[in-house]
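ok so i was messing around last nite and threw this chain in just to see what happens. nothing serious, just curious
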Amino acid sequence: MQLRLFAFILLCCFVKFAKSESYPEVVFDNSLVKGSYARSIVNYSGDSWVENVQRNLLVSDTLFFTPGNALSLKYISSENGDWDVMIKYSRQKFHYRVSNNDILSLKIFVGSEGTKPEHLPSISIQQGLNQSISVPLGDYIEDFNNSSWMSVKIPVKEFAGLDSDNIISGIVLRQHHSSAVTNQLFLDQIEFLPSQYPETPLTSNAVLTKAQAYGNHVDLLWQVPLTPSIRYVKIYRSEDNKDFKAVGIRPTYMLRCLDFVPILDKKYYYKIAWVDYNYRESPFSEVLEVEPKKLSEDHLLDLIQLANVNYFVDNYDINSGMYMPFRMKDKAPVSVRETGGAMLSMLIGVEKGFVSKPLFLSRVKRIVDFLGKAQNNKGFYPAYFDGRKGLPIYLDDQPRYDIQATTSLMEALLIIRQYLTTDSEDENNLRANITKLWERLDWRGVTLPSDPLVLRSAIDMVDQYFTYDPLVGINGGMNAYMLAIASTKSSLAPEAFANAIQYKFERPKRRSTIRNMQVTAGDNIADSVQSMMDQEAQFSTVSGKDSIYKVLATHDTLMYGIQLPFGNYTTSLLDMYRPFNTINPSISKVANYDLKDVLQRYTQVAKRRDNEIGVGTSNSDIWGFYQVRDSIGTYRINPAISVSSIFLDEVRGKRSLHALYNQFGEYLFTEYGFRAWLDIRTDDVSDEYIATNQASLAIQLENSRTGLIWKLYQAIPEIKSAEQRIFKK
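result:
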């Protein structure tokens, strides 16, 4: 019964104060963590001063306009000094562009006596390295006071110097006039709104349809009418059914959330209200009562998986059905590589009852129909398409057909073909169309001209002499070799798989594939987009006329007391884990290597290294650091690295999961699973998700529990034949 109830969490949000997942035009609504706001940068000079912690603004969780917090700006403006503060645009809303018809809106509370309108700072809009002129906030406040929240609305056209084609990276507050007093402002709901928005009065009661407790979390479900003036849902909680406090807001496209409560076996009471664009509230809903009880470990694992599955349920392009990594006004970018992980995650959701099978089939059919008409070469696709137009998108301005991206997609489709077993017309047609896509792949046509056993990583669309590095190593390239050997139309010899592991290729000269990045936003690059760029940057390219040398990849190295057969690794462990989303490591014995043992060795080294580094934690179960390329070389924890290791070591993986969830789950884990990273030293957390992380967790948790994806993959007739020829008994 309890397990069945978990299907209801499909669209939940999961943070302690039900913090809002804001609309794209919102610059700031709530800080994900307490203390200070890491997405702010404070600068001051001379006799001026701004209160800060490590150059970040402080967060107020007692005084705010929308729950659960606001920014505190405390400053001294001196004639012999200056100050400025940048509030960065959220990385998750990477592609927002303002219009001259917009208004910049924010809420201000003056918390200091003696502060006058002329003492308020001026404000400007930042776009990468470009900054608009600065306009005084005080000029746009009609009823200035020191006792209530005030609205500031500035037409965007007032900010001279803006480029309407450029995305915004934040807003900048700066010293305007000097004053003899210390001023303090509280800032909330910084957002861009249309100059005209719906203002129909909200006269009907809100509708809260369900409140169900799961451990320390309460799942709330509501209904939202098609009233255009409703912008948010505001959530209230009480412990006595009398004194209700606002604990969160949600946008109307979210139909539920999960609220954290601190005490089990205690009654809580909930009600909600609709909120319009002017933050006026509707009459309250009826009150619902819950009494949270302890959650079992199995149900906790279900919840973790469900949240990761939900990420792919929500983030897709309606035209193509494919995974959408980010949103743009003029196009709908979809990722071929990450759609594979999305489909496997949703299949798991169907099997566990989180996703309806008709919804899943509809999504897969849309994807297959799109791919049947999409541009390809020898059956292989570009890494990204515009889902609306069906045209390729090149994030790095380099037109190519991506072998690994196509592999990720195709192996997911083959697993789905194996999963669909009914004799219905819809499933028969879908299986047949998947087979057509599979059989048109020409694997022999994408090998190196000099070596028919080695696959290229990509095919250039323009320059036939432009050659990409081969696919070699223990990484996602292994999946391509498995499909190439399994092919019934253009198969490679079985020894190609072992060759790809044991050998690597070197060239005398190299240059990066990243020629001319078209998508930039200063230092505000979305984590998911940065991850894509990192993956693309792994390919090195040279002229087709350059020499290429095949050398042994083996390099016995002793690190942290463990012998490593292929030397030190320089990429994320997730790259080594990736092949085993589908290939069962327990049967992966090839040449002189037991690949499961190899993986375990590298995982142990990573854990020992990370424990030794520490980076702010003494808990040995928290590991999975990766180094971000910034000026200070910050180390951040990627939760997916340690938790995904559950498929190799169940005890170690579960210990990491519990440590991260119990210590940092309040703000690290949400309705879409674990966020991209956590920085313990700076108490900062990403507001972004990386599709490869979410898929890895959903898939490897299921493989460790039931082996579902491994079993389906091994049962595919073509794969079964290939594995029998590749792996030793």
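not much to say yet. The chain is about 25% helix and 25% strand.
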